[in-house]
Amino acid sequence: MKQKELAVAALRNGIVIDHIPCSSLFKVVDLLGIERMENSVTIGYNLDSGRMKKKGIIKIADIDLPEETLNRMAVIAPYAVVNIIRDYEVVDKHPVTLPDELIDIVRCNNPKCISNNEPMRTRFHVVDREHNTLKCHYCERIVKQEEIVLK
After folding, report:
1. CA 53, CA 83: separation in Å to the nearest integer?
2. Binning pLDDT at 50, 70 and 90, where does residue 59 land?
3. What's the burial of 58, exposed, middle or buried (CB within 10 Å: 0-12/13-18/19+)?
4. CA end-to-end span of the chain
5. Positive or negative CA dihedral for 115, 120, 122, 125?
6. Helix axes 67-76 and 25-32, enclosed angle (nearest 10)
7. What does the H/E/C string look like for the chain?
8. I need a labelling partner for 119 at 20 to 30 A (CA). Which of 4, 32, 41, 50 fits?
């Protein structure tokens, strides 16, 4: 029996974001503003993965992502891997990583926190990378992965 595969056009230049949890794929799509892009975009959802069982993937032609965007992505898809493509070749491949401190990226879920009541930037410290747990610098509220809301 012949195995059939669906071929997706190769990417000449751009990025491929791989190993996105399916539950986070459309949050990443929203974060990147893909619906407003004019670039060629391919989105794969519920694809088989040996490591994750199911995963999402996003391919975007002719784009580079700023560090701030990668930091925001690491909050909602902490195991994603970014592949940089130049002339059809992967020239760089690296996982997204949470910085030790997140400034003005995450909203504090404590309604009494000063960051929700004064015009100031939010500030969180990463207290557990494995479980993506953050701590508000101001009110010290612990925010777990499933509670994270991006600004």
Report:
1. 20
2. very high
3. buried
4. 50
5. negative
6. 160
7. CCCCCCCCCCCCCEEEEEEECHHHHHHHHHHHCHHHCCCCEEEEEEEEECCCEEEEEEEEECCCCCHHHHHHHHHHCCCCEEEEEECCEEEEEEECCCCCEEECCEECCCCCCHHHCCCCCCEEEEEECCCCEEEECCCCCEECHHHCEEC
8. 32
Instruction: Tell me the per-residue pLDDT of 17-51, one tens digit each, with 9 for 90 and over.
Output: 999 999 999 999 998 999 999 999 999 999 998 88
Pairing of the two strands 149-150 and 123-128? unpaired
Residue type at position 68: E
**53 torsion bin: left (phi>0), alpha (psi -120 to 50), beta (else):** left
Q: Using one digit for the tens of pLDDT, what is the confidence trace for 65-94? A: 888 888 889 998 988 999 999 999 999 999
Interatomic CA distance for residues 104 and 78, integer angstroms? 18
Q: Is 67 left (phi over 0), alpha (psi -120 to 50) or beta?
A: alpha
Q: In whole angstroms, give the CA distance from residue 109 to residue 106.
A: 9
- Comparing CA positions, the residue from 68, 78, 147, 146 lying closest to residue 107 is 147
What backbone phi and psi angles, to 5 degrees, belong to 28? -65, -40
